[in-house]
Specification:
Elements lengths: L2 H13 L3 H8 L5 H22 L3 H6 L1 H22 L5 H7 L2 H13 L7 H21 L4 H24 L6 H23 L6 H29 L1 H4 L2 H16 L6 H17 L19
Helix pairs in contact: 1-11, 1-13, 2-6, 2-11, 3-5, 3-10, 3-11, 5-9, 5-10, 6-13, 7-8, 7-9, 7-14, 8-14
Length: 297
């Protein structure tokens, strides 16, 4: 991989590794629905000039139905569920549970027949990853944790279906156009809820977290990932998933003093190994539109 490729790769590992920490801090003061609006509205506004400059408004209007559906599945309910879960479980556990997305994708490919046949090594990876998730969840299970883990599985379902829509219904639409339309639609949908749940006071730390989540971890992340896919290809680019998860776990333990549990020590290596096997089969070349095949925040 070229120096330019490594630069994009490391940038993405950090950009998609820090949101779990930032969400954990932000939900101390913000309702999860307010956080969704605060993340999506600025992203849509920042991307709007780019979409206009690229003369993509006709494409946005023509494909708006599927862009809206994509927004709901990729941003609307996953970000609400994730923020709700992070009120009750650690950012480390949250980031690890997102590793289920590649495993869910293998299942979706098998039953949806969205690509060719599933190679045997991918089934091996699916089994290893499932064991890792079972140990991760089982060894961290206590009290009402199962409810919040269930919410995270809902997030993984949304993150699994989103890329399928990109590859089938939106493959001819520019990435920034899809993200701008999707975030804008989601922001508008959350306004009624947020009017009733807007906080009376929000400190500077919380707003700083929201700003980084919206500008860096949404707009910056998607635009950077476009360049990464162009530079190294889609299959290599998705490997960033494993690195950003590791960064998220370390940040949670170091910055938020979250415990390094037995579940993490035992389940984490198995989940990562399973994901590597499950996603390592050669895939056909894809366009930058398929950027969402890696878990994102």
């Amino acid at each position: 991989m070229s120096r330019r490729g490594w630069t994009y790769f490391l940038a993405m590992a950090v950009i998609w590794g820090i949101p779990y920490l930032l969400i954990r801090v932000a939900v101390r003061q913000l309702d999860p629905g307010v956080l969704v609006l605060a993340r999506t509205a600025p992203a849509a506004l920042l991307l709007a000039p780019l979409v206009v400059a690229q003369r993509q408004l006709p494409a946005l209007i023509r494909h708006f139905k599927w862009i809206a559906v994509f927004g709901v599945l990729e941003f609307g309910f996953p970000w609400y569920l994730m923020a709700t879960a992070e009120k009750h479980i650690t950012s480390s556990l949250t980031s690890l549970l997102i590793c289920c997305v590649p495993l869910f994708s293998v299942i979706a490919q098998r039953f949806g027949r969205t690509e060719g046949g599933v190679a045997p090594r991918r089934y091996v990876g699916l089994g290893i990853g499932a064991l890792g998730v079972a140990l991760l969840v089982g060894l961290n299970l206590h009290g009402g944790t199962i409810t919040w883990i269930g919410l995270m599985m809902g997030v993984c379902v949304g993150y699994t279906i989103g890329p399928i829509l990109l590859a089938t219904k939106l493959k001819d639409v520019a990435g920034p156009t899809v993200v701008m339309g999707a975030t804008g639609f989601v922001a508008l949908c959350w306004i009624p809820w947020d009017l009733a749940h807007w906080p009376a006071h929000v400190n500077g730390e919380t707003w700083s977290c929201v700003a980084v989540l919206s500008v860096v971890c949404t707009v910056g992340a998607f635009l950077t990932f476009f360049e990464l896919v162009k530079e190294v290809g889609a299959s290599r680019a998705t490997v960033v998933t494993y690195f950003n998860t590791a960064i998220a776990v370390v940040l949670g333990i170091v910055a938020l003093h979250e415990p390094l549990t037995v579940g993490i020590l035992v389940g984490f290596p198995l989940v990562i190994t399973g994901c590597v096997f499950a996603t390592s089969s050669p895939a056909p070349r894809t366009s930058p539109t398929t950027l969402s095949t890696a878990p994102r925040l």
